[in-house]
Design brief:
Rossmann fold, Aminopeptidase, 2 domains, seven-stranded mixed sheet, alpha/beta
Length: 336
Amino acid sequence: MGGIGMFDRPELSEARQLIESQGLRFEPQFDDLVGLFDNGQLVACGARAGYVLKMLAIAPSHQGTDALGELVTQLIQSAMAAGHDTAFVFILPQNVASFEALNFRLLVTCAQAALLEHGPGLPAYLAGHAFQITPGHNGAVVINGNPFTNGHLYLVEQAAKQVDRLYLFVVREDRSVFPFAVRFRLAQEATAHLRNVTVLDTSRYAVSAGTFPAYFLKRLDDAALVQMQMDVSLFAERIAPCFHVACRFVGQEPLCRTTAAYNQIMAEVLAAHAIKWIELPRLEATGLPISATQVRKAFAENDAETLQRLVPPATFRFLQSPPARAIAERLRTEGA
């Protein structure tokens, strides 16, 4: 076997050809692309985007060799050098055993895909929150909170009345206008009066369209469906049992078709795991369901009167503070 190393951009066409020859979709967004060569011929390649390994392709002549192990080792080293202690890989279910042999841990699988991780990962996340776990008839709400609105607060308050403890999970992935640290703090401050509510972050365990690689699925709408199924299955199989979650609460979604579809899939998957799915009516203001989109629009327009009707005091105080000015400018420039 020849050498292994990072690709230069001019060599991308060769990697793309190999990736597509294996029935995968080439995705140009990545941090590193690794190639394995034999006598100057590219025989395997793989990429890393953040903590996600993707587009792992091996020529038929080198399948069954140590090519996969060499690629994965290089990419994990690259991920660690970039500050990631855990790496994810999304693969076809029939390839799970090959990655388990490389010390990957299976997180969740469905008919079209499987998600595995390498590193401390989920066990470390759960162990880190062990002191916050209490037995009982518990519930969960998962939000992005971009930012935290009166609609979020209403959902949490109504849900908290129905359970012993409510876990409010805030999506950690930083792909929103409001940074995770802000979203998390506002959720904590806005719900501080609810003694049976615990605010937690999702770590890496809310699978998102931003991290879910669609390269091995034939159509992008297939990818969206699989992402939703895996997200809910991961919660139902790995998160809910640990936190004694017996029910998950959502708000009705009359505006966004994608979120409405996600809620429907959630209802079906949770039912299969004996977890109750409870849909609550959305709180309205000015005749419309309150949404974070409304809040961002009013914030960008410096409409303080509207903001006071849409957000709790903790959020309003932040929106009026100097640290929020850069976010407002970004919204005015890029849109809500």
